[in-house]
Amino acid sequence: MHFKALAGACLVAAAAALHPARAGAQAAKSDSAKQDTTHAFTAAAEFGGRDYLGTFNPEQRGKFIEYRDMPHGFAVPNLFFGYAPGDGFRQTSLAATNVGQLDQSLHLRTQEPGLYDVRLEWDRIPHVYSTTARSLYQETSPGVLTLPNPRPTAAAYNLSDFLPAVRSIWDPVKLSVGITPSEKWDFKADFTRIGKSGDLPQSMTFKGSGGPASEFLAPIDQTVSDMKLSESYAVTRYQLMAMYDLSVFQNAIPSITVDNPTATTDATSMAARGRMGTAPNNVAHTGTLVGGLNLPMETRLTGSASYASWRQNARFIGATVNTAVTNPLINQLPASLGADARTTVLSGGFTSRPFRDISVSAHYRSYDFKDDVANQTMPIVVVADRSIDTSITVDRMPYTRTNGDASVRWRLASPLAVSFGYNWNGMKRDPEVRDRARVTETSPHVSVDLTGLYWATFRATYSTARRRGSEYTQQPEEDNQAFRRFDEADRDRTSTNLLATVTPVDQVTLSGSWDIGHDEYVNSPFGLQSDRSAVASGDVAWVPNDRYTVGASLTRELYNNRLLSSYRSGDQPSNPTYIYINNNQDAITTTALNFTAVLVPDVWEAGGTYELSRAHVHIFNYNPTTPSGGTAARNTAALAYDFPAITQNLQPVNVYVRWKLNPDWSFTVRYQGELFSQNDYETAALQPVTSSFYFLANNYQNYDARYVTITFSFHPGSLRVLRPTL
Predict the structure, then answer these.
(1) CA 703 from chain center: how many Å?
(2) What was the pLDDT predicted at 478?
(3) Where do the DSSP E strands lie in 271-357?
(4) So what's the pLDDT on residue 116?
(5) How far apart are CA 117 and CA 589, in angstroms?
């Protein structure tokens, strides 16, 4: 009934809008012609309503509204207002999308080309984590989550109601000012404020890995403020730019305190509640200088230098909230960290064309990170609000990364060009923290381009890379010394890429790509052994005439990585029969169709899209040798087995018909559907309470969403609204 009423109201509005236009069409056309030369105001809008068909309950909407808001009822997808005085130089515009929704945006701009450009943008971004969460925690004050006393039973958790949608919302607002007092000088200032609110699923353990442990909704109240200033000077021969960036992060909730779901009294074995710190307040300053120099022979030199200082000295939260844990050294803990990190970036570039058919380029970049703290040693550490550990020294992780590349491009003939290049990437770390002091990777590559043909374009690229490093020392020392971290291990990589676009006849365009990658970790006794990928895609577009277009595409992605690992036990830390091999296989297939049709020129048009995406994840595990040598329980625990397959399917469809009532008004009926289904053993049967673990039990449910949107557009040609990007 709601949809029928909505459709009836839209049809009445259509008749009201159409009647005066038809009654005085000639007069309106004449008046419009006069106004076009004098009127300085422009207005455009798209408005109407949306209603869902069938049953679509709130718990099913999690994945559907993950990054958007799709309410039923009245909707204003687009608004636009513009003003330009008679001189035609100055312009002011206001554009808005999804007005009144959680994902609405606003874009205000006023400018006079060559003099100033001022923009104000607001682009709200929602992120829904779940619509199926269940929890008995109550936030009694900011960052404090409590449970009833006595504690609820497991049945009370499992039978509790679903919570409202669990989401976080980012509210970024950006003011940009550009002033160009002359052709040589250009000043820009950007002020951005991002407010973050909502909740974020997190977890805490109250005793150890065996539980009890609890998942909860941590409240968010954060603000990021950023100011960027730049001044540039440019003439034909050279260009200079200076920039300054100030970034301030503020967190109104410095800690989260959570009740233990199984205990109400503090003890040295387990606390009645736990507390954890959140991201601390911090500030960062960055200064940058950039320059460019133009030389003869189409030669250009560029360079930049940047220095940043990051500071964080927020007060530590209390060492523990457990009243049963006492130690005189707690009073000797420092009040704050006094962290100070610094980054230095140097880069340079060179491009030249010494000969008509030969061009060369080279680039170099160095990034250096150093950090320090005023209080590097803590006299004691309280573990999980229950036990005291010995003093620790805070690890520092300085590193330096340098990379460069050089390439030569040679046009052999009019349509054929060949490029040769060489990339170099080096990383220097503290081996006491990150296992290796130096890691270096070199990568030569070659590409062949066939361009300039009106009917075809081809490109083929092949590269190979070799990464090696200094002596490897596994950290921490008690770990298996044969394991290798995948980002530091020796690696051989090959990559092949093919691109082609062919137009056999003017009405048909075919395009395709093929990417193959292979990483082999050649000197890793344990850890990641290999990583393979293959991605193939093809598109076809058919335009039989200026009234119809048809398109189709197919993409197939395959990923396969192999891991060699070992089950660890107390008395069998390196049992060779406890070794197992893990193979992770991912496959994604995406098919898409689209069409547009002008049924009656300037009156009726239609279009639509359909997409089918299928994802399949399968993890295969096996032991090369049957586990033995330990107790029966440990031999069983070391036995590897396959995990059930995980599948996801998504099928969105969008079909519309548009009726242009007159040059100023159009009426659109749009049918959209989205079918989502998944089979994930990890969450399919998840309950809020499992043994001593208390979950939110988040799980995206399957859904079949179908809805109709009816909209009117006033001045549709002016609705060129794009969501701003902050």
Answers:
(1) 24
(2) 66
(3) 273-277, 282-295, 299-312, 339-355
(4) 94
(5) 45
